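Predict structure. Chain length: 238.
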Amino acid sequence: MTGEHGHLQYGEQVIPYRIVRRPRKTMEIAVEPDASVVIAAPMEVSMEAVAAKLHQRAAWVVRQQRYFSQFLPRTPQRRFVAGETHRYLGRHYRLKIVPHHQDCVKLLRGFILVQTRQPHQPGIAKDLLEAWYGRCAQVKFGQRIAACRQRFPEPGAFRPHSLIIRQSLRRWGSMSPGGRLLLNRRLIEAPVVAIDYVITHELCHMAEPHHGAAFFKLLEHVMPDWEQRKQRLEQFMA
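Prediction complete.
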């Protein structure tokens, strides 16, 4: 269901929002991690009533949007040339590109070493490095999901149905209603404590879909230092 869309003028700010109709008696306003606003509303409630409710909560919505916006991913510009600094699991490595009879990427004494048959071909180092990051993310994220599930009293209830890894400019992760966990490929650059924060945050959504009081109560219970971890993620990936 795509829902209905609207926007609310609040002072000088415009708040776009999406309405999802459900068989319920009350309205619920949620600000998602990408700063979008979703309103769960009863089937029969008018658009005017929804807008009025949003206007009542507009100050809170704006605060939440500002909070989440500061943690949205920002992609640094990379040229993928020798000597450039790249990140992996919270450490910085210099990029080294050397001719070789086969294409390969590996870590070697403070360097990310790209071996290639075409060392001077534009784009080759980028393609090889991005593919390497993707393979590393698939392995490491799977390991961290297994570890983070153990934080919950019933780990079996917090097993994602699938893992999708994708480059994104909008968010670090998301959990679909069907239990599909999406993680930003760029997270493989971050420290493990930050990766675990994003994964644990999304696993909590399997029990609590929105960022209400119950969600943060669960997150606080399974990861008491989540705020520090989130700050670490933002500081390192800025």
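Summary: The first helix runs from residue 47 to 56.
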